[in-house]
Design a protein that fits this description.
Number of strands: 30
Shape: elongated
Structural class: mainly beta
Order of helices and strands: EEEEEEEEEEEEEEEEEEEEEEEEEEEEEE
Length: 328
């Protein structure tokens, strides 16, 4: 294979009784002289390959074509393809980039990388970059990779490029409290709440606490990237909100324990009240809004598994909490 553009002659033996010679060349090559004869002068392009063919027509038809693969070892470009395009979070280890096995040889490999884009700025990739496949390792920025094949005479051919896109994680959040509701200061696709070092099942931006303790939160982006965990913050459960529980001493859950249907009994009506049922992990599993709650209402919690739950009702600035046991 030529490493730069060049001129080459191709020829076949002279044939008696033929009308001429019909030549076919690889894309990008040009016949400079001899078209129609048994000997042609050809302008080649660097690092190209293909098949030269020629046939001779006569009064009986066309002869079988004579062919020649150029270069004779088929060159490094055939089969020099790589795969492994992917998206990872900053600091994560990218998956292996795999390359096909080119035809011909002998040759060597060299993986290259660029942070400027797919078409420029390539330098040798870090680490072991002379194997068929390549492991990018942990990445902090988006990088394009390609593999070069080098023949014994120094010719090079580059593969296609693959992009390893790197997504930044959300920034480290903090926790904002309002009453018994904790809110992550940073928005995300989902959240990981932690109480006293143990993961809770809640995945929403807000968490209604059901127990006092040390709380933390971690934000998950749409790409699945994790923020740093927030600093631990101690929050104590406020069971009655702003108003005193003495105003609601007549509030009861009946029966308690319950098999699922629970009555709400109180000595006074509530208006525009929100009821929430919270499991032991701090997750709101039932919510209902009432324009008004009379002295007796009923809710159906028959779909809840056996266990202990916190039932909270808010009305204006007042909030009251009662413990409910589901038992069957």
């Amino acid at each position: 294979m030529l490493c730069s553009d060049g001129i080459v002659y191709f020829s076949v033996p002279i044939q008696v009784g033929v009308y001429g010679f019909i030549w076919s060349l690889p894309n990008g090559w040009a016949i400079l002289s001899g078209q129609g004869t048994n000997r042609i002068q050809v302008q080649l392009r660097a690092n190209t390959f293909g098949v030269i063919s020629v046939y001779a027509p006569n009064e009986l038809g066309d002869s079988p074509p004579a062919t020649l693969a150029w270069p004779s070892d088929m060159g490094p470009a055939i089969g020099n393809t790589v795969t492994g395009e992917q998206e990872v979070c900053a600091g994560a280890t990218a998956s292996l980039l795999t390359g096909g096995i080119p035809a011909g040889g002998p040759y060597t490999y060299r993986w290259e990388r660029s942070t400027a884009g797919s078409s420029s700025g390539y330098t040798p990739a870090a680490g072991v970059n002379n194997s068929k496949d390549y492991s990018p390792g942990a990445l902090a920025v988006t990088i394009w990779f390609r593999r070069k094949i080098i023949t014994t005479d120094g010719c090079e051919a580059a593969s296609n490029t693959v992009k390893v896109a790197v997504s930044a994680p959300p920034i480290k959040p903090s926790i904002v409290r309002e009453g018994n509701t904790l809110t992550s200061s940073v928005a995300g696709a989902s959240y990981q709440w932690i109480l006293n070092g143990n993961n809770l099942s809640a995945t929403t931006k807000e968490l209604v606490i059901a127990a006092s303790g040390s709380y933390q939160v971690r934000v998950v982006s749409e790409k699945g990237c994790l923020s740093a965990i927030s600093n631990p913050q101690q929050f104590n459960l406020q069971p009655t909100g702003i108003k005193s529980d003495s105003e609601w001493k007549a509030f009861h859950l009946v029966p308690n324990p319950s098999g699922g249907r629970v009555g709400l009994e109180t000595d006074r009506p509530w208006f525009k009240a929100e009821l929430m049922v919270i499991d032991a992990m701090g997750k709101v599993i039932y919510k209902e809004f009432f324009q008004s709650i009379s002295t007796k209402e009923e809710i159906d919690l028959g779909n809840l598994p056996i266990g202990s739950y916190s039932v909270q009702i808010r009305s204006g600035e007042a909030m009251i909490s009662r413990r409910l046991l589901i038992a069957r």
